[in-house]
Amino acid sequence: MTSPADDTFAPRPEPRAPRGFPDRRGADLAGERRLIAALAGVYERYGFEPLDTPAFEYADALGKFLPDADRPNEGVFALRDDDEQWMALRYDLTAPLARFAAENWQTLAKPYRRWAYGSVWRNEKPGPGRFRQFTQCDADTVGSDRPEADAEMVALAVEGLAAAGVPAGAAVMKISTRKLLDGLMEAHGIVDQAQRLTTLRAIDKFDRLGWAGVRDLLGKGRLDESGDFTRGAGLAQGAVNDIEVFLNAAAQGLSRQAVLKALADGKASATRDQGLSDLERIDQALTAMGVTDAQARFDPAVVRGLEYYTGAVFEAELVATDAKGQPLRLGSVGGGGRYDDLVARFTGERTPATGFSFGVSRLTVALQAMEWAGAGKAPRGPVVVLALDAEGMADFFAAAAELRAAGIAAEVYLGGSGMKAQMKYADRRLAPAVVILGGDERASGQVTIKDLDLGRALAAGVSDHDTWKSERPGQQTVPRVHLVEVVNGIVDA
């Protein structure tokens, strides 16, 4: 019989991360941090104030994915607090903003302009490039009903993509307004809310499914390749035909003014006409800010799937070419729009708001995949001070501290291996250099510094091991007082 402390026969957990919750290391985190810094610079140049809200919100404050009042965990990760209230991890950064704005409205400068970044969580089926935990970076304006506020979101998204390192011509902002489709549905008597929402979701899949797939979803429904059936909107054929004409007109890649002219020829309604007026003002503002048709175009097929959008909607789509020069669509890396009803859930008063959100995790993956702006490269490691004997540990730590005081990342090797393994460790960390303070160096007041960056460069051209040993590329012994000067030169190079 084993004692409770004897776990010899206890089952061992399998080391595995939950699906959709990725582990991230140096290159991914460095790329994400660089990206957030670039976006933050754009947002703050536009005058947006940073805000951080908690990861958890009360479930009723989120107001989405919550069909089950007894256990609201569909779409979100929820738990009951000790006061029996349901809390859920935020699924985006906009719903917490609406709660914050409603709670602090009297003390805020209005319109309130804020930007934020952080992790969000969605209890959905994970897939390629689709995670249950990911990072977003948002900018929002609460308290302005001007279409120019929507145009500003588009302009800062365009500037943000460029700051992130996306090459010119590799991204496009697609803009529309829900008022166009609302007017079309009103003209055909589509008033049932569930039917309208199903229609919008079907149209939102136009880029991915093409007209054939959207037509099925507007009708009785669609059976996908996996055998799953999605129930359709059940529209009359006349409405389906008009939507086909509408989407085909939107897919021509015309200038913003040409799209406006084409849409003006459709069946008029008060809602549609207001949408066209909004787009006209957005176009004028974008033109004034220097945003070209190639950078931002009108595409009425963009509807956005979230239910709270009430007006302008927009998406950032990356495009590239493969080795054969064929178009390669990398999908949406951000989106947003106008949500004038969200704050009203708390206050009962309509409060206009508009915003844009970058999917930082997805954009980082795309940048790495295309190797844009050097993304995907492992970050440079610290300078490694080798620990060659126990007697010299104080000297090793003094050297590392001196380097760090000069702004150079440095560490002392703290494993138990010999010099060869320590060199291998430094190389695996992509250290720019190693510092050697052996007994001879310490006795003579010197230090040996090996330039690993230069060594890696030279290694590609050195095939003879004897030549490598005799040339000892990038290694030099200098007076100890010159440690920082020499290492700094290696790092800067």
UniProtKB/TrEMBL annotation:
Catalytic activity: tRNA(His) + L-histidine + ATP = L-histidyl-tRNA(His) + AMP + diphosphate + H(+)
UniProt keyword Transcription regulation, yes or no: no
Region (Disordered), start-end ranges: 1-26
Entry keywords, A to Z: Aminoacyl-tRNA synthetase, ATP-binding, Cytoplasm, Ligase, Nucleotide-binding, Protein biosynthesis
Composition skew (Basic and acidic residues), residue ranges: 13-26
EC number: 6.1.1.21
PROSITE patterns in the record: AA_TRNA_LIGASE_II
Limits of the Aminoacyl-transfer RNA synthetases class-II family profile domain: 33-379
InterPro entries: aa-tRNA-synth_II, aa-tRNA-synth_II/BPL/LPL, Anticodon-bd, Anticodon-bd_dom_sf, His-tRNA-ligase, HisRS-like_core, HisRS/HisZ
Protein's cellular compartments: Cytoplasm
Gene Ontology molecular function: histidine-tRNA ligase activity
Leader sequence residues: none
Enzyme category, top tier: ligase
Similarity comment: family membership: Belongs to the class-II aminoacyl-tRNA synthetase family.
Subunit note: Homodimer.
Protein name: Histidine--tRNA ligase
